[in-house]
């Protein structure tokens, strides 16, 4: 199990969208069209994005166990999906990118 310091460090590196960027993204049709909804209308990633905004609004010292668990889940998701490499063509408009963005990571952000 990772320490809070390890999770924090990876979170800082991987969650590269600001709360404002993520909030704006979550309002798009593209954001709402990707991911598994488990039958309740909102995808797991979309819910995660809303939670990420909440967490980013807190100080490290104010995070609770549920926050740390979600942060670890986000880090794991981003790492797994980045390892897939995404599609060879049109990464910018791919479900792969859109899903990662729901989880707070724009894989093209560092490339711009």
TrEMBL record:
Basic and acidic residues: bias regions: 37-49
Region feature Disordered, mapped onto this chain: 27-49
Any Pfam family the entry gives: DUF3140
InterPro entries the UniProt entry points to: DUF3140
Segment forming the signal sequence: none
Protein name as it appears in the record: DUF3140 domain-containing protein
Source organism: Paracoccus fontiphilus
Lineage: Bacteria, Pseudomonadati, Pseudomonadota, Alphaproteobacteria, Rhodobacterales
């Amino acid at each position: 199990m990772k320490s809070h310091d390890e999770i924090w460090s990876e979170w800082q590196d991987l969650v590269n969208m600001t709360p404002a960027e993520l909030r704006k993204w979550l309002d798009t049709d593209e954001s709402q069209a990707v991911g598994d909804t488990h039958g309740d209308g909102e995808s797991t990633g979309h819910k995660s994005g809303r939670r990420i905004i909440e967490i980013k609004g807190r100080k490290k010292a104010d995070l609770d166990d549920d926050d740390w668990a979600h942060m670890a889940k986000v880090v794991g998701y981003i790492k797994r999906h980045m390892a897939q490499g995404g599609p060879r063509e049109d990464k910018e408009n791919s479900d792969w990118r859109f899903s990662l963005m729901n989880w707070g990571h724009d894989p093209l952000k560092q490339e711009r």
